[in-house]
């Protein structure tokens, strides 16, 4: 059975991304408390949206592990956005290589695992 292992690996990457987003939101919250925000409403909105993204990724991780297609679909959308963000960062000077690799590589890996998991679950089984 390849699909459960692939689903578990994809879920693990999605869960790690959810944790990373939650940590980023906490860092933003600390910065807000330190007075680093130019606009309080904008900073709060960014923190809330970041936390919503973390919750969504966690839900996709649980759903992917359970073999739900909606979770794989949502996970794929997040990964496409992550890769697009990493590619867009390549246009900055100097190029933020740590960011590009830290966002792009997990996005590519999770994308591949999600697609492989969906294909393996859809493949006919020879029992």
Summarize the structure.
Helix content is 83%, strand content 0%.
Task: Describe the model.
With 127 residues, this protein is mainly alpha-helical. The chain has one domain (2-122). It contains four helices and no strands. 22% of the residues are buried.
Strand proportion: under 5%
Number of strands: 0
- Overall structural domain count: 1
Backbone structural class? mainly alpha
Mean pLDDT: 91
Measured as a percent range, the helix fraction is over 70%
The gross shape turns out to be globular
**SSE order in H/E notation?**
HHHH
Radius of gyration, CA atoms, in whole angstroms: 17 Å
Quote the distance from N terminus to C terminus.
11 Å
Q: Enumerate the spans where pLDDT stays under 50 for 5 or more consecutive residues.
A: none
**Main sheet: strands, sense, barrel:** none
Tally of DSSP helical segments? 4
What labels describe this entry?
127 residues; mainly alpha; 0% strand; globular
Layout of SSEs?
Blueprint: H1 2-33, H2 40-65, H3 69-89, H4 97-122
């Amino acid at each position: 059975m390849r699909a459960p292992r692939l689903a578990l690996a994809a879920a693990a990457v999605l869960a790690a991304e959810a944790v990373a987003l939650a940590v980023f939101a906490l860092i933003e919250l600390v910065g807000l408390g330190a007075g680093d925000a130019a606009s309080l409403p904008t900073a709060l909105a960014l923190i809330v949206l970041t936390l919503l993204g973390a919750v969504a990724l966690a839900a996709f991780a649980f759903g992917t592990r359970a073999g739900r297609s909606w979770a794989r679909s949502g996970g794929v959308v997040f990964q496409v956005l992550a890769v697009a963000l990493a590619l867009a960062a390549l246009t900055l000077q100097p190029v933020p290589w740590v960011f590009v690799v830290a966002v792009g590589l997990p996005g590519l890996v999770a994308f591949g695992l999600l697609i492989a998991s969906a294909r393996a679950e859809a493949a006919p089984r020879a029992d």
